[in-house]
Amino acid sequence: MKIGIDIRTAGGEKAGKGRFTFNIVRSLLKQDKKNRYFLYADSGIAGFEEFENAQLVVIDAKGLSWHRAVIKDLKYQEIDTFFAPTSFIIPALLPKKSQTRVILTVHDLIAFLYPTSHEFKAVVLEKFFMKKALKKANKITTVSENTKKDLVQKFSINEEKIQTIPCAASENFFPIKRTDENIEKLNRFIKKTNLPRKYFLAVGTVEERKNIDTLIQALAMINQKHPKHHLLIVGKPGWGHYQESLEDLINKNYLQKYVHFLGYVTNKTLNKLYNLAEAFVFPSYYEGFGMPPLEAMQAGCPVISSHSSSMPEVLKDAALFADPSNPSEFASAMENIINDQNLRTDLVNKGRIQSKNFSWDSSAQNFLNLLQWTNNSTAKE
User: Fold this and answer.
1) Where does the pLDDT of residue 380 fall: very low under 50, low under 70, confident under 90, or very high at 90 and above?
2) Which CATH class is domain 2-168+360-376?
């Protein structure tokens, strides 16, 4: 079987969808030595060159020209199945007479449920192409049951056409054993980066949906009683002027010395940040899956999360939950972790157990089974 995959998001500084593409494709290639893979990109992407049955196809074009060129190559290469892990454009544009079958992944419905907090261009493209892509797809996967529910409600899709295949935390995230040597290394890391000794950690693209303003307000509520605790925010600035509004909020609450924007960091650095944090805090209003809390749990960091969208499904009873619209609930949870070491230890232990319920190898095996099913299927649904 010949399988084509759009891997453009798997390169460079990856956010959630990019991490999904990189990890699911690598895990697929580790397990499947029989089928041939054509990995479509618009520039060179590292991480797949070790796999002999995978061919990187770089098409030097942008915009719709790139997508049309891929469609042309799918026909030329006689690709049996095309997997679209992040974009709906190629599935939507594939001719009806195309012999290539399609599997696409829907991560979330942000463009429909929270359009004002999403990049305008992305909203327009998703609204224009998603419905057509969903109709043409042989099979649809979602990263959570919550996204599946949203998809069924919004587009009235037959549930049997949708399969939930979850994300997981990368093996790059793990508890660092507190040996004398590792403690010395962590202390050098703190000194080199000028990190505060006590901090809460937030990770994700800095955009309105991530609700960092609620977290800043929560920090302001506990700052006088716990002045040694800071807030570190990891992630690139998102669309719009949200980060500027956060800086205004920080100034208003006199937290300039306590809130630190770190931007994008490597997985190696992020794992150290998870290991050293008082807790990981995730006040997001909406997530398709939400990988950072799971990464934190796998690294041995207790988690405080909003109780919205997919988060209760992914985190179960291994996190403290709070209302994303209520800063005082987050402040209370943060204080509980500061004051109760037994609670913190319990969350760490539960988090490690919960994170083991997800793995890229397991998800890749489900994808492989789905690819085989799609190839054996004779009719589009």
Assistant:
1) very low
2) alpha beta
- Distance, in Å, from the CA atom of 140 to the CA atom of 374, rounded to the nearest integer, reads 11
Sheet hosting strand 279-282, strand order edge to edge = 259-263, 229-234, 198-203, 279-282, 303-306, 320-322
Number of neighbouring beta carbons within 10 Å of residue 249? 16
Cα–Cα distances in Å, from 309 out to 110, 145, 150, 209, 327? Answer: 11, 10, 10, 12, 18
Residue whose C-alpha is closest to residue 17's, from 276, 205, 162, 282: 205
The reply to whether 180-355 shares the fold of 2-168+360-376 is yes
**Residue 184: CB partners within 8 Å, gap ≥ 6?**
none
Distance CA 201, CA 293 (A): 10
Domain range summary for the chain, segments of one domain joined by +: 2-168+360-376, 180-355
* Torsions phi, psi for 6 (to 5 deg): -85, 110
Neighbours of 73 (CB within 10 A): 15
> Which residues are CB-contacts of 157 (< 8 A; sequence separation ≥ 6)?
134, 140, 151
Query: Each residue of 284-316: pLDDT tens digit?
Result: 999 999 999 999 999 999 999 999 999 999 999
In 3D space, the residue among 107, 98, 70, 61 whose CA is nearest the CA of residue 380 turns out to be 98
Closest CA to 274 of 352, 180, 218: 352
- Lowest average pLDDT, out of 1-5, 37-41, 125-129, 219-223, goes to 125-129
Half-sphere CA count of 5, side-chain side, radius 13 A: 25
Cβ(347)–Cβ(320) under 8 Å?
Answer: yes
To the question of domain 180-355 being in CATH 3.40.50.2000, the answer is yes
Helical H runs in the chain? Answer: 16-31, 63-77, 89-93, 110-113, 120-136, 145-155, 180-193, 212-223, 242-252, 267-276, 291-298, 311-315, 327-339, 341-355, 360-376
What's the predicted TM-score (pTM) here? 0.92
Cβ contact 273:201 at 8 Å = yes
